Amino acid sequence: MITSDKIPSLGPYSLAVKTPNGFVHTSGSLGLKDGALVEGIEAQTLVSLQNLEIVLKEAGCTKFDVVSVTIMLADLKDFAKVNKVYGEFFEGHKPARACTQHAAIPAGGLIEMSCIAFKE
User: Fold this and answer.
1) Between β-strands 66-73 and 36-37, what pairing exists: parallel, antiparallel or unpaired?
2) Domain of 102: which CATH number?
3) Between 41-58 and 79-90, two packed helices, what is the crossing angle to 10 degrees?
4) Alpha-carbon distance 82 to 14, whole Å?
5) How many domains does the chain have?
6) pTM for this prediction
């Protein structure tokens, strides 16, 4: 189980789990900074990705080890804005990805992301 004192947890779960075969599965990451949601979809996207990066580092990985990302949006109309921030964050690295709209995101968020990384 992966934990970090830098990332808030909203429930009784691990931030990530590292399997013996080298995979790291993260829990959902919100745009929370200092315990509160940041303002706007672009900011929440970036903070969510930065929070995932912190968790990945705790697991011995980087964003370039990410093989798959799941994005949950409160509104698919934000897809283009999310893509812009996401593309800049991953600097040309292109993990597999799924993006869906959800009726509600925890804590009233606009976006939640999780990922799977692989490190040999």
Assistant:
1) unpaired
2) 3.30.1330.40
3) 40
4) 25
5) 1
6) 0.95
